[in-house]
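Exercise: predict the structure of this protein bound to adenosine-5'-diphosphate.
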Amino acid sequence: MKTAIEIENLGKKYIISHQGQAQQYVALRDVISDSVKKLVKPKKSMKPQREDFWALRNLSLQIDVGEKLGVIGRNGAGKTTLLKILSRITSPSEGKIKLNGRVSSLLEVGTGFHPELTGRENIYLNGAILGLSRKEIRKKFAEIIEFAEIEKFLDTPVKRYSSGMYVRLAFAVAAHLEPEILLIDEVLAVGDIQFQKKCLDKMGDISREGRTVLFVSHNLTAIEHFCSRCILLQSGNLILDGNVESVIEGYIKDVREGTKDLILADRIDRTGSGKIRAVDFKILDSNHNEVITMKSGEDYYFEIDYLNNSEDNFKNIVVSLDIFDDKNSGLLLFRTNFTNNNLEIKKRTGKIFCKVNNLPLAPGNYHFSIFISSADIEILDYITDICHCVVEGGDFFGTGSSGLPTHCKILHKAEWFIE
Amino acid sequence: MAQKDNNFLIIESGKAEKHYFKDLWRYRELFYFLSWRDILVRYKQTVIGIAWSVLRPVITMVIFTIVFGRIAKLPSVDAPYPILVFTALLPWLFFSSALSDSSNSLIGNANMISKIYFPRMILPASAVIVALIDFFISFILLGIIMLWYRFVPSWKIVFMPLFLLLALIVSLGAGFLLSALNVKYRDFKYIVPFIIQFGLYASPVGFSSDVIPNKWRFLYSINPMVGVIDGFRWSIIGKGVEFYIPGFLISIFLAILLFLIGIIYFRKTEKTFADRI
Ligand SMILES: Nc1ncnc2c1ncn2[C@@H]1O[C@H](COP(=O)(O)OP(=O)(O)O)[C@@H](O)[C@H]1O
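Solution:
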C-alpha cells in the first residue's frame, strides 16, 4: 500500500497569556507603553505571564492511499488543529508531514460566500476558494446546481436564500471537489438530515474512487458508516488507533471519564437530604450495551446507580427522570408513581432501571435530571444537568427512512384519514 | 507513479516553504476571483459604486482647486488648475484607497484565513487591484475634464504606465506591511487613516512640487508618492513641468525598499495569521 499521509512527531504549540482571557493579539499601545516603562525601569520585566499550551503533541501517523480515517475526541482534543496543520492553514511547531497528492480541506461549508452575489457567482467564487480552477467549475457546473436543487434561484443573490438553500449550495460545491486527499471537519452538522445523507453518499463515492479521507465528527453513526479506521485524540495526544468499533468504544469511555468527575458521585450542586444519592447514570441499549448516542424509536434502559447512606431499607421511593433539550425546556418526565411503580431501595448500593420503548425524542441534544424522594415526604436527592447525550437518526416510524425533523422534539405516531 | 512523486508536499516546522511563490502562481485564479468579487459587490450597488469612484475625485478636485488655486493663489503650470490637481489626485486616490483597503484585507477576511489555505498575500494584493480598477475609472474622468478645458495632453503620456507601476509597487509594499501589522496590533487600524490624511498634505496633490524650495526638494522626495505624482504631471501635462531627477531616483529606491520590507515582514508573520486572527 502506498502512503498518502505520513505524520512524524507532530506538535502544535499555542501561547496563552494569562492576563484575563486568552489574548490572541497585542495592542501597539501596550507594546509602546511597556517598552517606555522598561526604559525607565529596566530591571523589572513587564512581560505578562505567558504559557505554552500544546494543542497537539508527539503525533505520528501513517495513512494509506484510499483509507478513510475517522478522527474523534472530546472538544479541545486537537482534532481541528490537526486538520488545520494538514491543510496548511496553520504551521506546526514541531515535526514533519509528508503529503502525497492534492489536498482539499473542508472546515466549513460556504467559506467566502458573499450575500450580495448570486448563486452562480458564488459557485465560481467558492470553487476558486476551494482550489478548483475555472475550467473545472465550468465542467461541473450543471452537476453542482442539480445536486444543490437550486436551478430556479441561480441568479438570485444568496442573501435571499433560505438557510437550507444556502447550505445545499455551499455543500454542492464542496461535494464536487476531486482531491486525492480530502480533510473534512464536522461540517455535516448543518443542513437537513436528508441532504446530509445525500452528501455522505456523495462523499462515499469520493472515497470509493480511491481517495484518502480524514473525517472529523461527533456523529458516530457517520463515522461508523463512512470510515475504515479511526483514531482517538485526547488533550492533544493520540491514544487509540485501530478499527472503528474499538476506537469508538474507547471514545465513549473517554467521554464518560471526562464527565464522570463532574457528574454524579462527586457533584455537590445537588439538593435533598442525602440519605440516598444517585452516583452514576448510564444509557444502555436493548442489549445492555452502554451508549452515548441514541436513535429515535429504539428501546433503551436508563440506569441509575445509587448509594444508600443510611442503614435502612426504604420503601415506596419515588424516582423521577426528566429529559430536557439543549435549551433546557423540559420535554419528558418518567416518574415511578405515574405507573404505581414506586420502588424499594435496599441498603448500601443498587441499580434502578427505567426502560423506555420506542424512544420518542427527535434528533437533537438532551440532558437529564434525577429526582429521588420518599413518597413525596422527604426529598432524598435531586440533581440536574446530568448526562449530556445526543439523539440522532433512527427509524422512529418504521418506514425505513431516517429523515426525521429536528425542529420538533417529541415524535409520536398518528393516523391520517379522510371522511 | 513517477508523476505522483512530483506531488509530494512536505510540511515541516520552522521551515519556509519552497513552494510559496509557485503556490502564489497556482492560486492566481483565487486572486482573480477575489478582486472580481470586490468589484462586483461594489458595482452591484450601482449608484453608490459609481458615485464613489466618480464623486470622490471630483469633489476633492474642486476643493483643492479653490483652496490652493484661488485662495492660496499657488502658481499653476501651463495647464488649468483643475487639471493640475486632477493629474495628481489620480495616483493619490489610488494609493490611499489601496492602502486603506489592503491594510484591512486580512482582518476583513478573517474567516477565510482561519478556514482555508491559500497564500495570504493574495488578499492585500487583490485589494490593491480593486483600487487600480477605480483608478482606471477616474482616468476616464480626467479625459472628460481635459475635453472640457480643451487641453491636449503631452506625448509623454506614453510613459505614464511606468509611474503607475511605481505607484503600484508603493501600494503593494505598504499594503503588505500594514495588513500584517494590523493582524498583530489591532489598534494599528487607527494609524492607517492618519497616514493617509497626513500623506495627502505631505504630497504635492493640491500644488506643484515646484513650490517647494530647492534645498528641501530632496528631503521632500523621501515620500515615494512625490516621485509618482511628479511623474504623472510630467507625463500628462508635459509643458512647463520640470522633472527633478534626484528626487525621482530616491522615490524609486524607497519604493522598492518598502516593497521588499513589506514582503519580508508579511512572509515572516504569515504563518501565525490563522492563530491570531
Ligand atoms: N488560535 C488559538 N490560540 C490558542 N489556543 C487555541 C487556538 N486554537 C485552538 N486552541 C486550543 O487548542 C485546543 C485544541 O483545539 P481544537 O483543535 O479546536 O480541538 P477540537 O477540534 O478537538 O475540539 C483547544 O484547547 C483550543 O482552546
